[in-house]
Amino acid sequence: MAEEQVTAVEQQSQPSEQTAATEPSWRDSLSDDLKTNTSLEKFSDVSTLAKSYINAEQMIGKDKMVVPGVNTTEDEWNDIYNKLGRPQEPGAYELKHEVGEEYLNQDMLTRFKETAHKYGLSPKQAQGVLDHYQEITNQVNVDNENSVMLTQQENERSLREEWGRSYDENINKASSLAKTFLGEEILTTKLADGSNLGDSADLIRGLTKIANLVSEDKLVGDKTSTVDTANIQSQINTLTESGGAYWNKMDPNHQSTVDKVLALREMLSS
Q1: How confident is the model at residue 64 (pLDDT cuts 50, 70, 90)?
Q2: For residue 225, is it within any domain?
Q3: How many domains does the chain have?
Q4: By C-alpha distance, which of 140, 112, 146, 139 is closest to 126?
Q5: What's the CA gap between 219 and 232, in Å, rounded?
Q6: Staple partner for 195: which of 86, 155, 175, 199, CB 3.0–4.6 Å?
Q7: Is 23 part of any domain?
Q8: pLDDT in tens, 218-236
Q9: Where do the H-state alpha helices sit in 106-253?
């Protein structure tokens, strides 16, 4: 009886031949050399294999290029750029642009084309980059003009509050002095930020102070009038003290201070 129970247990523990059998594969009908080819393992059925074949056949005759990676060679990159539409040479780019001092002069345009060609830009891409650059440049110019206008308005407001009814008189004094000793165009000289030299409230104040040291004859162009040289030299010494704006090009008042000193020295030498 015990032997019969052991036999029954052994029979239950053994897998059936049907369970152990491998399920049939579509590759079973192939010849042995094809059946064992590892390239076919990725295809789960005949339909998947057929789709892959059709796709491959459709690609025959079409241009192909290497997918770029970290090890892509320069020649491979050039082949990619050319297939993507890069012109044969930089001069072949035909770009719409605004040529001018404020935008893009001819030399800058030539260098832009060379850079665009070096990095494989198609004509459409190069035009897009150039258009974006010009949009930024235009906006910067507008912003600068607005900034200059606000500075002019603020300086005028400051001087009007400081001088009151004497504003026009003092402006005329400063203008006359500058034109007499520094030239007609001095006040309209453009600074790096786009403003005029004459827009500087500090410069106008300085010119007005100097003008008050000069006789009325001096203001109308008589450069032989007597000048308080001691007072002027004192102002020069003060403005050129070590560590001051006169010596520090990064100081926002540097240029106006230099202009004041030049005007004062011109007064002494006249």
Answers
A1: low
A2: yes
A3: 1
A4: 112
A5: 16
A6: 199
A7: no
A8: 444 444 444 567 778 778 8
A9: 106-118, 123-163, 167-182, 201-211, 216-219, 229-239
* Longest Cα–Cα distance in the chain: 146
Structural tokens at position 181: 């000793």
In angstroms, the first-to-last Cα distance of the chain is 141
pLDDT of residue 87: 95
Tokens of 122: 């198609």
Residue 224 has a pLDDT of 43
Q: What is the pLDDT of residues 66-110, one digit of tens each?
A: 678 888 889 889 988 998 999 999 999 999 886 555 567 888 889
| 42 located within any domain | no
Q: How far apart are CA 193 and CA 35, in angstroms?
A: 79
CA distances, 238 to each of 131, 212, 242, 243 (Å): 51, 18, 9, 11
Question: Do 98 and 104 contact (CB within 8 A), yes or no?
Answer: yes
Residue type, 196: N
Task: Give me the residues paired with residue 227 across strands.
Answer: 214
Q: Which domain holds residue 245?
A: 174-269
Average pLDDT, the chain: 79
Residue type, 221: G
In a domain, 242, yes or no: yes
